[in-house]
């Protein structure tokens, strides 16, 4: 068995409660990387699997692996709209 080097990538994942239950998860720095789970724990597991699959596809395509900025700020922005 060959020794393989392992690199850990940390990405911000956004979990939103789905109307039908469970959670939808997306990773902003990985466009199109979206998954879901019936529970938060399942959604976390699915997100890890989706991220690893996404990175493997990029590696297979010889594409650059995105690096997330260390200075990510997540906040809510209120927007006004006349109704």
UniProtKB/TrEMBL annotation:
Annotated HicB-like antitoxin of toxin-antitoxin system domain residues: 11-69
InterPro entries (alphabetical): HicB-like (IPR031807), TA_system_antitoxin (IPR051404), TTHA1013/TTHA0281-like (IPR035069)
Family matches, as SUPFAM superfamilies: TTHA1013/TTHA0281-like
Record-linked Pfam families: HicB_lk_antitox
Name the UniProt record assigns to this protein: HicB-like antitoxin of toxin-antitoxin system domain-containing protein
Source organism: Candidatus Portnoybacteria bacterium RIFCSPHIGHO2_12_FULL_38_9
